[in-house]
């Protein structure tokens, strides 16, 4: 799957496999390392790195790719994620009985063995402190399902209602089944190169304005020992992200906030400054995130509906939005490009954000670890 994803990304960029001389990947014991993938593709690498990590890895690895290119270590980098999260290594699956050690004594030993179990206390606390309602949070799934209905490759394109979300069974209170992302076998790839080379590639280039990677709270292993459990590491990364980008959240046209669960998007949008702390419930439910709203979020359906790839698909979707080339149900013209209508009407039609120029990706590893990125087109 990794080889297929890299081939597709290279072709999409208008490059050749021989143009790739750097390769980065991340995994959680569910992937193939870059040296083996490169060899199968006939690529000789000048730099490679395989890291361990989940949803806070994508933006961080884009930052690493920028660094090694600027250092002259390689020219063009393929960043990929290939995972067998459905048929193989399932995140949070109970597995066999084994000896626990280290931080697991504070987590798995207390029944916090899955992401849903680990994050649920923070979600519950947010509702208690700020009055956030289950109905507000369920709107994240509702809105992302509306976007997925316009995505021909979404794994779950069916639109759902708030009642359907809240009537689905509880996984870890207060998280319902339909508030959890889907487990998938998937592979995705992003190509990173210099500005000069990108200008000669096939598509309108998308530029990285700013990136923060794997920023952590003081305790990243046991997040509930590091202050307010409703505040993510994104709060510690936000100032650096916006300062280096030279803009603020108000300048962003489209967001991709990691939605492993409905609540993760809410917390990230608060902590990166798109709304004040405690106002996330209103932000995610008042129409702001909808196509046609002030700042659409996860326009491809996100991890909740399009599919789970540890956030890689969220970056790819924002790149498509900034290229003004979202692959929706709009007709393809003689030029080979889609003729977007921007009406955001019937399911299966347009999901392109009109005149999108700046996008933000807000990654999530845990409450205590996060990454983010600002993208823009000239």
Lay out the secondary structure.
Elements: H1 2-13, E1 22-27, H2 34-41, E2 47-52, H3 58-70, E3 76-84, H4 115-130, H5 134-148, H6 162-167, E4 170-172, E5 175-176, E6 185-193, H7 195-198, E7 207-216, H8 234-245, E8 254-257, H9 262-271, H10 280-285, H11 302-305, H12 312-322, E9 358-362, E10 369-376
Parallel strand pairs: 1-2, 1-3, 8-9
Antiparallel strand pairs: 3-6, 4-5, 7-10, 9-10
Descriptive keywords:
single chain, 378 residues, alpha/beta, 4-stranded mixed beta sheet, 12 helices, globular
The largest pleated sheet is described as:
4 strands, mixed
Q: In one word, what is the shape?
A: globular
Rounded radius of gyration (Å): 20 Å
Cα-to-Cα separation, first versus last residue: 33 Å
Number of alpha- plus pi-helical segments: 12
How are the strands ordered across the major sheet?
2-1-3-6
- N-to-C SSE series? HEHEHEHHHEEEHEHEHHHHEE
Helix content: 25-40%
Description:
The chain has 378 residues and is of the alpha/beta class. Strands 2-1-3-6 form a four-stranded mixed sheet, sandwiched between helices. The radius of gyration is 20 Å and the shape is globular. Helix 5 (134-148) packs across helix 9 (262-271). Helices cover 31% and strands 16% of the residues. Strand 9 (358-362) and strand 10 (369-376) form a beta hairpin. The mean pLDDT is 94. The chain has helices spanning 2-13, 34-41, 58-70, 115-130, 134-148, 162-167, 195-198, 234-245, 262-271, 280-285, 302-305, 312-322, and strands spanning 22-27, 47-52, 76-84, 170-172, 175-176, 185-193, 207-216, 254-257, 358-362, 369-376.
